Amino acid sequence: MDSFESKLDMLLTETYNSISKVEERNLRESGINVTISEVHLIEAVGNQECATVSSLSKALGITMASVTIAVTKLSERGFILKDKNPEDKRSVHLSLTRQGVRVYRVHRYFHRRMVRAVVTGLSDKERDLIYSTIDRLNNFFKKSVKESIS
Q1: Domain of 77, in residue numbers
Q2: Does residue 55 lie within any of the structural domains?
Q3: CA separation for the pair 6, 17 (Å, rounded)
Q4: What is the CATH number of the domain that holds 49?
Q5: Residue 127 falls within a domain, yes or no?
Q6: What does pTM read for this prediction?
Q7: In total, how many domains does the chain have?
Q8: For residues 142 and 136, what is the distance between their CA atoms, to the nearest angstrom?
């Protein structure tokens, strides 16, 4: 690794760790007692019109068993509602409770603030460059996830 790659590696690692710490602190300060993983599951439910364990598993790239366990815990803690599908008793529709919606909104607000902090004052060219760079990084991770599942 050359000097630039080493510095970039350190910056990416530091940034990831900082995002996690600040996001956790932001949730705690809002009186919300959930893990980052739980927040991301809540977010996935909030982002879907008709969420199911299967659709969350696909969206999050985790097993249906893991989603089922997490959904059960979040349901017991009052963040997610589970409603049986009247047409297919095996299928369960998931939605957010009032408390779940609050977590979802706090999380989205944090992300809006984070993105605005990055893009404020940038030219269109700089925005395009940042977007394409992060898109390339995201594609690397998506490919790595697919390879680990296969």
Answers
A1: 35-119
A2: yes
A3: 17
A4: 1.10.10.10
A5: no
A6: 0.85
A7: 1
A8: 10
Q: Please provide the size of the chain in residues.
A: 150
- Summarised one tens digit per residue, pLDDT across range 122-140 is 999 999 999 999 999 999 9
100: helix, strand or coil:
helix
Could you tell me if residue 144 is inside a domain? no
Please give the DSSP secondary-structure letter assigned to residue 1.
-
Grouping H, G, I as helix, E, B as strand and the rest as coil, residue 96 is: strand
Distance CA 24, CA 99 (A): 17
- List C-alpha distances in Å: 8 to 3, 13, 19, 49, 118: 9, 8, 16, 38, 17
The residues that bridge with 92 in the sheet, in sequence order, are: 84
- What single-letter amino acid sits at 44? A
65 occurs within a structural domain: yes
Name the residue among 48, 107, 45 with its Cα closest to residue 74: 45
Token code pair at residue 79: 């963040």
The model's pLDDT over 57-79, given as tens digits with 9 standing for 90+, comes to 988 988 999 999 999 999 999 99
What's the half-sphere exposure (Cβ side, CA atoms, 13 Å) at 79?
A: 24
